[in-house]
Amino acid sequence: MGGISIWQLLIIAVIVVLLFGTKKLGSIGSDLGASIKGFKKAMSDDEPKQDKTSQDSDFTAKTIADKQADTNQEQAKTEDAKRHDKEQV
After folding, report:
1. Is 51 in contact with 43 (CB distance < 8 Å)?
2. Which of 3, 20, 56, 66 fits a disulfide with 62 by CB distance 3.0 to 4.6 angstroms?
3. Structural domain tally of the chain?
4. How high is the pLDDT of residue 81?
5. Residue 1 falls within a domain, yes or no?
6. What tens-digit pLDDT sequence spans the chain (89 residues)?
7. CA distances (Å), origin 40, targets 20, 37, 43, 80
8. At residue 65, what are phi and psi to the nearest 5 degrees?
9. Which domain holds residue 22?
10. In 3D, which of 14, 85, 28, 36 has the Cα closest to residue 6?
11. Alpha-carbon distances, residue 59 vs 13, 17, 52, 56, 73 (angstroms)
12. Is 49 within a domain?
């Protein structure tokens, strides 16, 4: 009940066409479409630049498994060092 019905939208559309004319509305629509197209192009141009900078790095990316293995090795070394210290005491 509180919403706009299809008939109300049609009446508004007819009034807008009468006020601005079809030629003006067509140019506004094409300008809006060109703006959206330019915006999308600019957004897609930024993405390859980010990918290129990440590929320029000298180091290789470590996977989560590699990082966990490194952490486990470090923990094992510290535990061995603690055992060695206790044995000397």
Report:
1. no
2. 66
3. 1
4. 81
5. no
6. 578 899 999 999 899 889 988 888 889 889 999 999 999 998 888 765 555 555 555 556 667 877 788 888 888 888 888 887 777 76
7. 28, 5, 5, 57
8. -65, -40
9. 12-53+64-88
10. 14
11. 60, 61, 14, 9, 21
12. yes
What stretches of the chain adopt beta strand conformation (E)? none
- CA-to-CA separations, 3 to 15, 42, 74, in angstroms, rounded: 19, 37, 65
Against a cut of 0.85, is the pTM above it? Answer: no
pLDDT at position 2: 75
Residue 12 CA to residue 16 CA, distance in Å, equals: 6
3-class DSSP assignment, residue 88: helix
Token pair recorded at residue 65 = 């498994």
**Coil, strand or helix: which one is 3?**
coil
- Biggest CA–CA distance in the chain, Å, is 98
Q: Hey, what amino acid is at 20?
A: F
